[in-house]
Write a structure and sequence with these properties.
The chain is α+β, with helices and mostly antiparallel strands. The protein has 4 helices and 13 strands. It folds into 2 domains: 93 residues, Ribosomal Protein L25, Chain P (Beta Barrel); 99 residues, Ribosomal protein L25, C-terminal domain (RNA Polymerase Alpha Subunit, Chain A, domain 2). The longest helix is centred in the C-terminal third of the chain and has 13 residues. The chain is elongated, with a radius of gyration of 22 Å. The termini are far apart.
Length: 202
């Protein structure tokens, strides 16, 4: 399961572009906490620590406990990170309050395993990944880091649909109305040429 991240935060006395620029000059990133029927709170967090957590690769699907002004931790889920168009530094973050028993929608990366057990991969097939992430509904205290999808038994021409994926207990696909494709196993060029030649001879 995705680990809970922790960030210390301080409230911002002033909002607005000028105040945000002043905060950034001190090595901090403006942010806001909202949701759960409570008033929004404007805060700022340390840029270096935020960048370190962003580089983990699963910041957007991790619970972040924000300790504001040394008070009790607030459970949140990052909902948006804005980056500077030139420097790519984070310039603003939106955090959504969540309760421990809340069911939330997150984007979870997929990871393919058992390539050595796939006849298609042994023949040199190319795995064409249609969806690198899955939109999943899951408990806020049980967010998976990734979804492992087995390629065992898969051959050239096979497609992997969401119905074939085993999801953790309590986790469901956010898309319910169709059995969408996650990946297909495509023949390599050399194998296609051999097949075409065989068909032409026949």
């Amino acid at each position: 399961m995705s680990e809970t991240l922790k960030l210390a935060a301080e409230t911002r006395a002033r909002a607005g572009k000028g105040a945000s620029r002043a905060v950034r000059r001190t090595g901090r990133v403006p942010a806001v906490i909202y949701g759960a029927g409570q008033p929004a709170v404007t805060i700022h967090v340390e840029e270096k620590l935020l960048v370190r957590q962003l580089s983990s690769g699963h910041f957007m699907n991790s619970i972040v406990e924000l300790t504001v002004d040394g008070g009790a931790a607030v459970r949140t889920l990052p909902r948006d990170v804005q980056f500077h168009p030139v420097t790519d530094r984070p310039i603003h973050v939106d955090f959504l309050r969540v309760s421990a028993d809340a069911v939330i929608t997150v984007a979870v990366p997929v990871h393919f395993v058992d390539e050595d057990k796939s006849p298609g991969m042994k023949r040199g097939a190319v795995l064409n990944v249609v969806r690198h992430e899955l939109q999943l509904d899951c408990p806020s205290n049980a967010i998976p880091d990734q979804i492992d999808i087995s390629l065992a038994g898969r051959d050239v021409g096979d497609s992997i649909h969401i119905s074939a994926v085993v999801l953790p207990a309590g986790v469901t696909s956010h898309i319910h109305d169709r059995d969408f494709t996650i990946a297909t196993m495509v023949a390599p060029s050399a194998l296609k040429s051999e097949t075409d030649a065989a068909e032409a001879t026949a």
